């Protein structure tokens, strides 16, 4: 592990290697299942193999067919040389005698064998590609779906680069196994077993000498298994770091360029890239040692058998023919070992990738879907929100909210204000169930959020934040994200209602304009408008706005407020805003400071009192015009 | 929503001059390892030779010493076999060891170069290219290349050599039959060529689709909160399913192609063998060939099966490498749209006065027909602070991005102290300009690293001062102070905290020109007032261009410029504009106004001072 575990502290600038900083959570870049203690490693390894077995299970029938085809192909391939010998031994004499029949028979059988080989090979390769691709598809989908289930807190520490790494480069490492694995495994195992049988049958003492090689092979393989497992594991981690850094610097390219960050970035990239180079070189060096090691054992065994066998022949214990045959087969015995070593290598590499995936799949969502969801009440009661003694902190040692109590009756519009860092967004995120409280409950319509099915919760409540995200696609697609079944007219109506229609129709393709990735085609304010239209279209019972209008100009903001005012008349709303113009229209104002509600009341009342809100309001008034 | 399909490489599937051209162009990365490659080829060939010799020696033992009951001879030959065996293993070890070192070194070298190149490409390139596409180039494409360099290329050479040697031996053994075998190279060639063409298309598609999947994953990770907020997991999963399905189908298509070709490549040597058998048998019957010769010929010919069989795999590997090289070169061939001119000058910070002038500036985003800015004139005097005010989408951020040359003007020019920005060294210009973007860009690195983005050499005191100015001392209270790693995109901070860090970063470089895009939008009124009073001190002797929405922040500015319809339509002090320019009043008035003014700038009446816009 890198900086995360290196807690001793030089001043930050002293050590350029500390660019990553110290993660509040030492396991920040792993899934919880990936621990460094040996037992956890072994568990994960077992689990990753189990995962492989699990994704292969649906393909048992196909795998059987593939193996059958492979055997057929090999039988056909084996019969070729045999038919050639048959032709030479049996067909030439009759031909001399002017009798082409036997030659024709041999030629026809030969052609038939070639045809069978062709068909079987083609079939085998096609089926194994099918299996392989299906396995990869299955893995990708499983892991992706699981990522979607994992809570925001997980993603914050895991980072998108790592998520990408899991779904691309780790899967790639498995693809290599899937591509050539079945063939080399089956063929090698088959050959080794059958040849071992023949060897034992040919000459038992010689065969036992051969078997002496096995402890060596076993020992070498065990060494390789251990060394390569940790080497490949390191490779996967190093690659993830390369990806994390790459993704972030490309995403922040404007800042990188504006701040002439290129050199430093290059330095960092080179160092993670070099880590990856070294770790993969190490892994390749292991196989570069293991594979010739196997070869060496085989070759030495051949020489030993040669001596011992020759001596036995000289001693009259066995025949020359037997020795000759034995040597031929011995060669056949060790050759597939090479293939097996390659397969083993791919397996090790794939397992390291699978471990990472298994680690993700093992991660239990801390914000979990209820097993027995309780339906939300219908009608107006649906929108009632309550915090009962809610305590929450992102880290155990620093609570953000302590024992927060708050009741918002259905239909009320509440403004939440307070200094930055007071915990306003945290309240919003708890209400939207991005996190679950450490203690206490948050209820909607009287039902604990933990007991509401996610789909129902999301229908009832929408959170719009300052960080608006637009997906690649058209403007209309992005608005429709609020309600996927909405028709074009509804989309346009939503845009009109919040005043986004004019700018959208001025775009080159109107609603069909591609917004580019993350909505880069639009200005920040325009993105916020689209996000609003989306929320408007979603039409929830509870709407939470977290500084959602911060990038809008004043008139546009007001228009949005008017639109929301009309839609929110009978809905619950929690509005977080710094511009008190927003707040004035609320039914009630809450002032939050350091996680506590310090003032609570209708804006008109709070203004006349001498409290925080009155102060803020005065300051704000003064700052106007 | 088709995320992957948008933008990206425009020239997908374009027909290239020669399929291997780009692969060949990458040879410069091979050059530093040329000697190693020479050695490992030799080691590989020698190992193959030793490998062939071992069974021959073994056979000789059986035929010679054993038959002659010669014990010394036996041990001698067995010793030889042992030596050859050791040599083979050692040579293989050397080959693989060297090969793995040099192939990973080449992979790393290309990756470094691609990254360096990408960092130099302009913002508009990065707007167009999904980063997943870029990412797949430095990951999966590079590992394809590495595999080709460490195995494909080697076996290609080895197998060609083996093939040629065996065919020459066959021709020498029996010219007519040998030529027959040699002629089988024609169908092999045709099959290989056809396969290569088809496979090329498929592997290009596959690699592009891999990039699409990476893009989709990245987008998912970034939009995770939005996805959660709307409970749109199922839709995203369906979208991902479609994208991976496409990848799956392409994979199967590739598998089919490979299956057909591999099987054909198996068939051809078999049929040749059959033909040789029939023709040879006839020749033996006719007395033109002995049985011994025929047996020798056939057993030699059997040695051809493996090199031919593996051809399909090698071509596939080579095609993938060629495609990967294409994709990598596509990036490397893109010239940076914004780069230093041949004779660019560097300004010395102490001599810069900071007079920033926009002269008839026009700007249009690449690929869009309508210009955002047209004929914009504005002068910011040294040390002056000008606020730019305009409706949402009027082009304020665009204007600001022209100053550090994240984009270049399409018409007119921008000068700093009379120098056209394009005549300055980029590094020099960007060292003079401090920027805080509308959306603070933070990286999942330490706070320190995020702050010193533009000044890696900044001292502790300077950082402290910058943090104090931006009211961002909270950073010291993070669990590990400035060494704390920020969550991705800084999302473990509140919005206002992020914005203040970004502001501290901008002032830390002690810029001659400060460009702040809506820098206080996420701050509460109280903090905003504190930051403002601190900023005022910095702004006193720094040229600054700010975008502001709030009347309160305008107090920071000496003058205000109203941006409308792509040009500055009014400049003056806040009070002047408020009194004389209704549009301005409409934009900044705290009072509820008629809905009609809130429309977008493009739809309102262009003439300033038209109908009274403020009703209150
Ligand atoms: N994801 C997070 N991980 C760790 N700390 C966080 C996270 N989000 C916010 N915080 C911290 O919690 C505190 C409250 O943040 P927040 O609720 O966003 O404040 P605000 O009132 O400005 O919206 C801040 O000190 C912030 O640093
Ligand atoms: N990358 C882009 N490609 C094409 N058009 C863009 C791009 N970025 C912004 N625009 C358009 O340019 C206009 C000005 O955007 P911007 O400068 O961000 O506005 P703002 O004044 O709100 O900061 C907007 O209408 C927007 O749609
Ligand atoms: Mg907040
Ligand atoms: Mg803007």
TrEMBL record, chain A:
It comes from the Bacteria. The chain crosses the membrane at residues 66-88, 100-120, 185-202, 208-225, 312-330. Residues 1-36 are annotated as: Disordered. Residues 385-619 form the ABC transporter domain. Keywords: ATP-binding, Cell membrane, Membrane, Nucleotide-binding, Transmembrane, Transmembrane helix, Transport. It is found in: Cell membrane. InterPro entries: AAA+_ATPase (IPR003593), ABC1_TM_dom (IPR011527), ABC1_TM_sf (IPR036640), ABC_transporter-like_ATP-bd (IPR003439), ABC_transporter-like_CS (IPR017871), P-loop_NTPase (IPR027417), Type_1_exporter (IPR039421). Residues 66-349 form the ABC transmembrane type-1 domain. PROSITE patterns: ABC_TM1F, ABC_TRANSPORTER_1, ABC_TRANSPORTER_2. It is a multi-pass membrane protein. GO terms for cellular component: plasma membrane. Belongs to the ABC transporter superfamily. Lipid exporter (TC 3.A.1.106) family. Its main location: membrane. The lineage of its organism: Bacteria, Bacillati, Actinomycetota, Actinomycetes, Micromonosporales. Pfam families: ABC_membrane, ABC_tran. PANTHER family: ATP-BINDING CASSETTE SUB-FAMILY B MEMBER 10, MITOCHONDRIAL, ATP-DEPENDENT PERMEASE MDL1, MITOCHONDRIAL. GO terms for molecular function: ABC-type oligopeptide transporter activity; ATP binding; ATP hydrolysis activity. It comes from Micromonospora sediminimaris. This is ABC transporter ATP-binding protein. Gene3D superfamilies: ABC transporter type 1, transmembrane domain (1.20.1560.10), P-loop containing nucleotide triphosphate hydrolases (3.40.50.300).
TrEMBL record, chain B:
The keyword Transcription regulation does not apply. It comes from the Bacteria. It is found in: Cell membrane. The chain crosses the membrane at residues 34-54, 74-94, 148-171, 177-196, 264-285. InterPro entries: AAA+_ATPase, ABC1_TM_dom, ABC1_TM_sf, ABC_transporter-like_ATP-bd, ABC_transporter-like_CS, P-loop_NTPase, Type_1_exporter. The keyword Transmembrane applies. Residues 599-616 have a biased composition (Low complexity). GO terms for cellular component: plasma membrane. Residues 356-590 form the ABC transporter domain. It is a multi-pass membrane protein. GO terms for molecular function: ABC-type oligopeptide transporter activity; ATP binding; ATP hydrolysis activity. Keywords: ATP-binding, Cell membrane, Membrane, Nucleotide-binding, Transmembrane, Transmembrane helix, Transport. Residues 596-616 are annotated as: Disordered. Residues 39-320 form the ABC transmembrane type-1 domain. Belongs to the ABC transporter superfamily. Lipid exporter (TC 3.A.1.106) family. PANTHER family: ATP-BINDING CASSETTE SUB-FAMILY B MEMBER 10, MITOCHONDRIAL, ATP-DEPENDENT PERMEASE MDL1, MITOCHONDRIAL. This is ABC transporter ATP-binding protein.
